[in-house]
Fold this sequence. Notes:
The chain is an all-alpha fold. It has helices spanning 2-28, 45-62, 68-90, 101-122, 126-136, 160-165, 169-185, 188-204, 216-244, 258-267, 286-312, 320-345, 354-373, 375-378, 383-410. The longest helix is centred in the middle third of the chain and has 29 residues, at 216-244.
Amino acid sequence: MRKVNEKAMKTVNSYASNDYVDAFSYINERPVDDISLEFFYKPHTITLLAVSIATVIYTAFVRDESTIQDNIWSGTCCVVFFFLIISVLTFPNGPFTRPHPAVWRIVFGASVLYLLALLFLLFQSHSTVNEIMYWIDPNLRNFHIDMDKEYAVNCSDISVAKVWSHVDVFAWGHFLGWMFKAILFRHTGLLWAISIMWEITEIAFAHLLPNFLECWWDSIILDVLICNGFGIWCGLKICKALEMREYKWVSIRDISSTTGKIKRAILQFTPVHWTPVRWLDPNCTYMRFFALSQLVVFWQISELNTFFLKHIFEMPPSHPLVIARLCLIGVIVAPSVRQYYTYVTDSRCKRVGTQCWVYGAIMVTESMLCIKNGKELFGQAQVCNVIVWLVIQILVSIGCVYGVVLYHRYFEPTKDLGQETPIKDKQN
């Protein structure tokens, strides 16, 4: 009897282990479900090695080496080039496979490179970091933030023309950014919580970042209701359309018309399927509740890093380095949020995905870089404002998450039940 029980226990442990491996592999290195063109998914390591070495040999022996700055820049580009190639060969692709797993391996490699660069800068002085920035772009020497510029003036003088004059490229950036966030989070309550709390964040740190000062109508009407609200609405509508769409993928070889082949090639850049998310459950435990509240607060910190970095190291909002960082963070966040969601909601997943781990390290390192090099700026901080902001962040995030839990419990008690795989809230 004991042998039978031991055998049964081994079988159960084996199944549990397989479930754990499958759940983690699904978000960390998801396999391609259906391969129609095998050429693009077969390994070409020898060919890649030969082409890479040939490219390096040609550029190393042909290029002009008379300028030290060009030599350093070329060497840096070559290191990045080979690191990204190694990323394609060895790194996990994460939870996404479209348009190709290699794309997401490159994204993961770029995130690791960015983290390593941040760690290097963390051990440099402020002046050294500035010199590195000036070496990358000498024009930054001539740019300085105008601390005397006045913001939020004549707020009582409001008109349609004045409101319309504020609909600039930044307003469109707000709209597109929130539409992207809506596609990532796919939850109205969490999105509105983050949107409202960001306005509170701007008020709390306006004494350090003058561009956070806004008139009430700019903050409430233009930002929260129009740009953020409309972006959230459009993003959720896109999610709903993708959720209702019927996904039947046909191999491009089986399509006879040229137009059909082109359409199928374009659709390769769309999701292979769309899974509805359920961040909150009517029976949420404290751990899941805490994880979502933590997500809301961490998102505020990540957003703050954007503004403090360009303020402390004095870069204009339109600078290529600022835009490149925003684009990189955007593509890193997509798999990170998916991995965090699975880790929070699926009881079989015991580890957070590697891309999410790297993004967390990036967020913390950026914050440390800002604090270390912005001692003079943070020395002017009104401690009372920061403490009140932190308390409000915690209370509002917890309150919002709890409110959404109550909403799901009393107003949507039967909606989408059983949609998720085993939920962490229901484990012993």
